[in-house]
Amino acid sequence: MQQAVGDRAREAFTLVNIAGIYNSLGDYQQALDAYNKALTLQRAVKDRPGEAVALNNIAQVYSSLGDYQSAKC
Questions:
Q1: Which of 19, 57, 60, 64 has the most CB atoms less than 10 A away?
Q2: Taking Cα atoms as reference points, which of 18, 40, 37, 31 lies closest to residue 60?
């Protein structure tokens, strides 16, 4: 619905929550996909705190995968 009405900030917030669920289920690729979509939207609406949260969560997923090089970038 948020996408349909063009509310990109809330869409990003929802994607972060969806990504968190995927992450907790161990579906790291789906989590990364959702976090990266959220990150794109957050950058578009200039949501700097949201962007920081998404980047932190992306790093945590990479850390869970043992990909520490990607986690620190």
A1: 19
A2: 31
d(CA 62, CA 32): 9
pLDDT in tens, 13-43: 999 999 999 999 999 999 999 999 999 999 9
Mean pLDDT of the chain: 92
Note whether 54 and 38 are within 8 A (CB): yes
Angle at 46 between CA 41 and CA 48, to 5 degrees: 100
Alpha-carbon span 71 to 73, nearest angstrom: 6
Please tell us whether the domain made up of 2-72 is placed in CATH 1.25.40.10.
yes
* DSSP state at residue 25: T
Domain ranges of the chain: 2-72
Dihedral of the CA atoms 23, 26, 28, 31 (nearest 10)? -30
